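User: Reviewer 2 asked us to show a designed sequence for the structure in our supplementary figure. I'm pasting the structure tokens here. Could you produce the per-position amino acids so we can include them in the response letter?
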């Protein structure tokens, strides 16, 4: 039981970071509201609610639920988390923490936990809105969907940690995060779902963490167990990015 209990110092950091996090309406909006709002706007387009030839048996609105989920993850881990962690380092907060019982790692862990939970809450909201508003079927392979979502969260958090490690200032974190956001969203299928891409382009996107995640979530949503190549790709990216973040992260 004691191994599962947070130390008083870690618990205090998590509580303080949660208080600061919920006082940031901008971050909460972009993580928890914007992805679903974008999904609703796209789903309101009549052609998105019609079964087309590009994806046999599916409407575009069905395909865009995983994309909305990945949008929330990328908002949390590229746009929201890195500037906060980098700002703490820039202002010397992490260095001062190293002289107290509170270790700097507790701050990074708290930030990853809070942004991960916010992104998961956004995922639940997107699935619920898809079902209630657009009659999108709930994931048919629930366990496979949960596994794919968990790997997607891990990959996104590790990417955010790497960005936090490499950015020397919060301004740099914002700039790099914005630059990385659009290629990552393209690979996730925001502008063109991976299922509709030409074969060569689709195969390239599936090698990237969010292209693989989009495919795995779509497969589980349709009732199939996600392709092991997609799950394995997501897991590999999470491990590689985490190792890189640990290698290059600096607390001051």
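Assistant: Here is a per-position design you can include in the supplement:
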């Amino acid at each position: 039981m004691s191994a599962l209990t947070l130390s008083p110092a870690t618990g205090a950091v998590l509580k303080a970071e949660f208080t600061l996090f919920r006082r940031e309406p901008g971050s909460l909006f972009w993580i928890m509201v914007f992805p679903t709002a974008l999904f609703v706007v796209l789903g309101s387009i009549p052609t998105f609610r019609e079964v087309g030839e590009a994806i046999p048996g599916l409407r575009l609105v069905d395909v865009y639920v995983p994309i909305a989920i990945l949008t929330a993850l990328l908002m949390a881990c590229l746009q929201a988390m890195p500037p906060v962690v980098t700002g703490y380092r820039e202002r010397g907060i992490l260095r001062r923490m190293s002289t107290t019982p509170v270790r700097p790692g507790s701050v990074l862990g708290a930030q990853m936990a809070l942004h991960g939970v916010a992104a998961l809450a956004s995922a639940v909201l997107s699935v619920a809105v898809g079902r209630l508003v657009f009659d999108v079927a709930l994931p048919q392979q629930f366990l496979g969907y949960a596994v794919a979502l968990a790997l997607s969260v891990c990959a996104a958090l590790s990417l955010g940690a790497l960005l936090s490690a490499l950015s020397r200032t919060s301004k740099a974190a914002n700039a790099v995060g914005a630059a990385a956001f659009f290629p990552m969203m393209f690979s996730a299928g925001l502008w063109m779902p991976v299922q509709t891409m030409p074969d060569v382009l689709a195969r390239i996107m599936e090698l990237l963490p969010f292209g693989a995640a989009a495919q795995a979530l779509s497969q589980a949503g349709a009732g199939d167990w996600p392709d092991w190549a997609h799950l394995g790709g997501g897991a590999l990216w999470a491990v590689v990015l985490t190792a890189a973040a640990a290698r290059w992260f600096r607390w001051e």
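For the response letter, you might also mention the following. Residues 7-248 form one domain. The radius of gyration is 19 Å.
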